[in-house]
Write a structure and sequence with these properties.
Elements (H helix, E strand, L loop, with lengths): L15 E5 L5 E6 L3 E6 L4 E7 L26 E2 L24 E7 L5 E8 L2 H4 L6 E9 L3 E9 L5 E3 L1 E3 L2 E3 L7 E3 L5 E4 L5 E4 L11 E6 L5 E5 L4 E8 L3 E6 L1 H7 L11 E8 L5 E3 L4 E10 L1
Antiparallel strand pairs: 1-2, 2-3, 3-4, 5-11, 6-7, 7-8, 8-9, 9-22, 10-21, 11-20, 12-20, 13-17, 14-15, 14-16, 16-19, 17-18, 18-22, 19-20
Length: about 300
Amino acid sequence: MTNLDPLRSFDIPDIARFEPGLGGLTRLVVATALAEAHVYLHGGHVTHFQPAGWAPVLFVSEWSFFAKGKPIRGGVPVCFPWFANRAGRPESPAHGFARTMEWEVESLAVDGDQTVLVVLRLGASEATRAHWPHEFVLRHHIVIGSRLVMMLEVENVSGEPFQFEEALHTYFAVSNAREFSITGLENAPYLDKADGFRPKVQGPEPLRFTAETDRTFENTRSTCVLDDPGAERRIIVEKSGSATTVVWNPWIEKAAAMKDFGDDEWMRMACIETANAGANAITLRAGEKHAMRAVISVA
């Protein structure tokens, strides 16, 4: 069993505590008058967010692995330092190494209205250098209140520039994948991964899922709104420091082929990902920092 003693100094009585989560992985459990949330140190991964008065906002597969070295399927995986499959390096793990590594707790605090602020840290190590030679510090600032705010901060602590991709690969819970819509990407160009990365343009209408959907919208900084009439709510995704938005649903065939995803779970999820990928990859000079922020609220 995980030794939680080193983390006890961070616990906030009756508000935030560390405990063994699924698979014995350590998680932070937050419960306040504003919201509930779970954050796993494995992957620096938010798996649960439920603002007061609403159903859970995030989707996590019932088939997900909760094991060292395996990514968690759902919630908000952190993709870094590349997105999807690494160009020219098929042996590298998809979406980078950050989502399968153990993060450290740098700080945990609560403010006057019971908003909880946690900062997790991942630094360069022998394990990261085996895949990527650069020296870095990655901090995940997570604010849990009536809104979920996540800020991924990358610091270049090496003596030379490096380039990276990143994403907050957020899985949202929906009532029916055939019935919701996404606004904010109207008339925007995208690369269609489900159709051989062909360049296309979204029409003037809201985006709806009717088949496997895997679209990378580059050079967009707009707010997206997921309108889910079956759940009688809208999920608003605001962002800054991000020029890429990715939308994804595996649909029927791909869902059936995934070992860590239920055959019918595609009906209950939709990804709207805050990212910098492809043409929007970030080049960071020595000593510089870059911050990417996503703000998730419900109305």
